[in-house]
Design brief:
8 helices; Deoxyribonuclease I, Chain A; 6-stranded mixed β-sheet; 24% helix; alpha+beta
């Protein structure tokens, strides 16, 4: 099975959408999971991949009229093969449309998620991680794939240490628990750190593996999203694919080409497994 997960940056320009679709089509993927899809762009993807099976967050939402402002983004899954879409309200999170789940005919459950960024959503990010982890923990032995844009971690070391957004590094290099002061009345740094860490690092408790790290180790510095600080480019590995350890991984990598072509501010992550 060949799967791609990609945050498409809520693009609405038809020329960009066409190029995104052309790129996805050229990869001959069995499964396509897209984040930051809008009500308008989902229609474009469905029309382009009309010979595939697809479902979006908007198809399953009970509150479509509320999906605007910081809730305007959804997901879409496109598949070569038939599947069953699962009820998003099974997972107790603030924005149910931010997780989309399907069950393949072989019983594998595929989850795609877009974790709200903490900078603008505060504790909603924490509650999203907590709700998702609690749900996945109910049945750790099932075959599952979890992919998407997690807006985490802040940083990773070559030794495998993970720095979450519930932590900061002081000038001496010491790591301490700390969060943005505007959220301190809503959430402790300890809670924020644990919420992110439970999935980003402690996914072994879910009987899952980080596909990219399992194959490439921590020596590979690849990132999926980039920003600039004091004129210096800074990369973060926000986009992930986690799979049950039962899967045999053949390849996993970030394709930087569509980001460099301006098709999104994220680079997609691709995995091949069986």
């Amino acid at each position: 099975m060949k799967l791609i997960s990609w945050n498409i940056n809520s693009r609405s320009n038809k020329e960009i959408l066409q190029k995104q679709c052309d790129f996805l089509s050229s990869g001959d993927f069995d499964l396509i999971a897209l984040q930051e899809v809008t009500m308008q762009s989902q229609k474009y993807f469905k029309d382009y991949f009309v010979d595939h099976f697809s479902v979006s967050s908007f198809d399953l939402s009970k509150e479509v009229e509320s999906l605007k402002n910081n809730r305007k983004y959804g997901q879409i899954i496109i598949s070569k093969n038939q599947f069953k879409a699962l009820n998003p309200y099974r997972i107790q999170i603030p924005f149910p449309e931010r997780v989309l789940t399907i069950k393949l005919l072989n019983g594998t459950e595929v989850y795609t998620t877009h974790v709200p960024p903490g900078s603008s959503n505060g504790i909603i990010k924490v509650e999203h991680f907590e709700g998702l982890y609690k749900f996945l923990l109910k049945n750790p032995e099932s075959y599952k794939i979890l992919c998407g844009d997690f807006n985490s971690p802040k940083q990773e070391s070559l030794k495998g240490d993970v720095l979450t957004w519930g932590q900061k590094i002081n000038k001496s290099g010491e790591v301490r628990l700390a969060i943005n002061s505007k959220w301190k009345d809503d959430c402790s740094a300890e809670r924020w750190d644990l919420a992110e860490r439970n999935i980003i690092q402690n996914h072994v408790s879910l009987n899952m593996q980080d596909a990219f790290r399992a194959l490439n180790g921590y020596e590979d510095p690849s990132c999926s999203w980039f920003t600039k600080r004091n004129g210096v480019e800074l990369g973060r590995r926000y986009d992930h694919i986690f799979s049950s350890t039962n899967f045999n991984l053949a390849a996993c990598f970030y394709d930087q080409s569509p980001r460099l072509q301006g098709l999104s501010d994220h680079s997609p992550i691709i995995v091949e497994m069986e």
